[in-house]
User: What shape does this take?
Amino acid sequence: MKTPQPIPWTGVAAAFVAALALAGWAFAQGGPRGLRAGQEAGGPWWMRQTALSPDGTFPSLKGRRWWRRAAALRRGQTLVIAEREPQSRMMLRREVLKSDPAGAQEGLVWMIDDNADGSLAEGGDRFDDCYLLDFGADGKVDRLVDYIDGDGDRIPEEMECRVFTAGRLNYAWFAVAPPGRDLPDDWRGYDFEPGAFFAARSKGDVLIFINKFDPEKGVWRPAGPCPSAFYDADGDGWPEAALRMTALPLAFDPLDSASEGAFSRPWEGRMADVGAVSLVASYMLERGQKPEAAPHYDLSFTLFGRVQYDFPNMVHTNGRRRPPQETVAVPWSGGQGIAAIFPAHETGLSWREGGDEEALTSGSETEGRLPDQGLFWLNERRHLGPAAGPATPWNVRREWTGKPASKRELYYSEIDRRVHLFGAEEGWLPIGRFAGLGPLGEIRMFDTDKNGFFDRWELFLAASVRPVRITQVRDERARMISAEPAALAEFYTKEVLPLARSENERLLAALNELHPFDIPAGLKAAQTQGTESERRYAQDVLRELAYQSFRDYFSTLANQVLAGERAKSPARRPAQGRGGRSGVTADPSAAAWKLARLLDELDIAYGQGDYDRACGIIEEIRKLGPLA
Assistant: This one.
């Protein structure tokens, strides 16, 4: 696969900027407005306490007047620091730090009461205090965790976790509430790995992102997941939409696994030129889900491209932030608008059909389905840039197109009663690993005539090396639908799911009346458990298994009769009339042949989703009666 070249602000990218301008967006103008690293002298006393050099170096704590006393502390002991500031506003404590990469070891925590509310008497607060962690108590600062409460309501609007390497600022994770809001109330603690921002189970509206420190300019640069934005439209605490953009230096190859985690590497000059190389927009369509129902995202668009990281209103300055005060990230208010028109070289659609028991056991499905991350592309078969998060291989339909696109388009297929990505060239759905079932097989989809709609479906079972069923159509029976999340959710939940369920029930009743299928216990239970889409998927799997059982059973009957008749010598064959109706005895091969032909017709009707015709053919098979 060829790596897309960086897109200059011409052509598609210029149209992208123009579209943003038409939407009323304005790009930030001018240079930095906040303090840079090394300019802390212009700030309040607590800012000066944590002053950096211009290249981000934090002076060794061993140069502080209180270092000898701090180094002598034993686990659990504290030291109130008496300098020029009030004694109650700074304190050190020695404790075991679980976030130490070397393992849980003792270290020092330096606590600063920025707003002088006496919080250190209670061990510090989590809305306006700052914590510096020194792993191993070697005098080098390794982490700085800071909370910012700008409106004084004792709930932070922002927090950050800065990571230092060998005493120099490297990168930081930031969490920012939308304007006029507060961070979710579960942002607590300071002893955690920076990547555990998502493990905090953030709920509601929030913006999370990484910035890397540029030691040559003393400023932040966008890096890694920048941003992850979450949108809770109905205020129930579970975001219905999630956006994750990945920022990477344009000089780096986004398809090279070595580029993942580049934000943690030592600074290189070429890291200053940053691009947005992928964007994942995830949506929850069944919005009635609640925490006890294990909410999950139903679909996502993974957009792989390379545009300059230069977006409207991406610069955010907070005068209460320790320098550098100016962060860079797509704002919370603009994420969904950018996702709608982001110019992608390649696009992937992920649609969660059901859960993955194997992933649930390992924990990745739990992380991937809760609304603190999103539904991510699995980088196999088709690679769409840096891996964006936990992805499950089973029961998630993937569709891919290599055609450049600057808008997201969907269509509904009456063939399989599913929503698909318009323009997708291929797709696949691994089936199994749920309801106590092992791997069952896979459905593959193709657009053979290149008109944007799937026209070929292939079903593979786990033990088959060739498709057990192939459907090829000339009329795709497809119609374009809105990709706008609210409209799509309405269409999917009110039309698609009820119709699919009722059609499945009708066909299953016809199949079971003639050839009852012994349903596995777990699959039977899954018919009434989970969300409506999960029940529909379990019913789809049951329908397919019941159909294959029906098809195999009657095909075996027909073929046994036909093979038996061929084995007879002409002398042993009785006199027969045409069609077995007017001769001395009935011809069982005629009935077997008719059954074989009906089964072929049933395959066509079933594969094309024509369940009216399929039920009619099943009735004709019933009327044949037992083969003589």
Summary: Confidence is low (pLDDT under 50) at residues 6-12, 22-31, 360-371, 578-585. The first helix runs from residue 11 to 22. The longest strand covers residues 219-231. DSSP finds eleven helices and 23 strands in the chain.
